């Protein structure tokens, strides 16, 4: 887009567009606008809303990162760490640990991320351990 095109848009087309808009003289005049008048105003109102938002956005409060919160709210709260072991006959390896804290980098396999989570939050969540049942 050349500067001539931009200049023409700003100097000719934009003023012509604004003159054609059905802008009422008073605030009460907005109530008298028809549906087609409102539809013609929508692009202008959308641009003004976007510019307003972009203007105030730097001053809006930043979203805080969600803190780690408790995962286990009521199961075996009297225990320092909840670990369940299940014996399975048809398991290929001796032990398999599955994550229940949702923090594991190797999910669904436990990588002991629950230790840090428990330390930070005071939670007591631990892995699910599947053991090969010895007959």
UniProtKB/TrEMBL annotation:
<keyword id="KW-0408">Iron</keyword>
<keyword id="KW-0472">Membrane</keyword>
<dbReference type="InterPro" id="IPR042216">
    <property type="entry name" value="MitoNEET_CISD"/>
</dbReference>
<dbReference type="GO" id="GO:0051537">
    <property type="term" value="F:2 iron, 2 sulfur cluster binding"/>
</dbReference>
<keyword id="KW-0411">Iron-sulfur</keyword>
<keyword id="KW-1133">Transmembrane helix</keyword>
<keyword id="KW-0256">Endoplasmic reticulum</keyword>
<dbReference type="InterPro" id="IPR045131">
    <property type="entry name" value="CISD1/2"/>
</dbReference>
<dbReference type="InterPro" id="IPR018967">
    <property type="entry name" value="FeS-contain_CDGSH-typ"/>
</dbReference>
<feature type="transmembrane region" description="Helical">
    <location>
        <begin position="38"/>
        <end position="56"/>
    </location>
</feature>
<comment type="similarity">
    <text>Belongs to the CISD protein family. CISD2 subfamily.</text>
</comment>
<keyword id="KW-1000">Mitochondrion outer membrane</keyword>
<dbReference type="GO" id="GO:0010506">
    <property type="term" value="P:regulation of autophagy"/>
</dbReference>
<keyword id="KW-0072">Autophagy</keyword>
<dbReference type="InterPro" id="IPR019610">
    <property type="entry name" value="FeS-contain_mitoNEET_N"/>
</dbReference>
<dbReference type="Pfam" id="PF10660">
    <property type="entry name" value="MitoNEET_N"/>
</dbReference>
<keyword id="KW-0001">2Fe-2S</keyword>
<keyword id="KW-0496">Mitochondrion</keyword>
<feature type="domain" description="Iron-binding zinc finger CDGSH type">
    <location>
        <begin position="81"/>
        <end position="120"/>
    </location>
</feature>
<comment type="function">
    <text>Regulator of autophagy that contributes to antagonize BECN1-mediated cellular autophagy at the endoplasmic reticulum. Participates in the interaction of BCL2 with BECN1 and is required for BCL2-mediated depression of endoplasmic reticulum Ca(2+) stores during autophagy.</text>
</comment>
<protein>
    <recommendedName>
        <fullName>CDGSH iron-sulfur domain-containing protein 2</fullName>
    </recommendedName>
</protein>
<dbReference type="GO" id="GO:0005789">
    <property type="term" value="C:endoplasmic reticulum membrane"/>
</dbReference>
<dbReference type="GO" id="GO:0005741">
    <property type="term" value="C:mitochondrial outer membrane"/>
</dbReference>
<comment type="subunit">
    <text>Homodimer.</text>
</comment>
<dbReference type="GO" id="GO:0000422">
    <property type="term" value="P:autophagy of mitochondrion"/>
</dbReference>
<dbReference type="GO" id="GO:0046872">
    <property type="term" value="F:metal ion binding"/>
</dbReference>
<keyword id="KW-0812">Transmembrane</keyword>
<dbReference type="Pfam" id="PF09360">
    <property type="entry name" value="zf-CDGSH"/>
</dbReference>
<keyword id="KW-0479">Metal-binding</keyword>
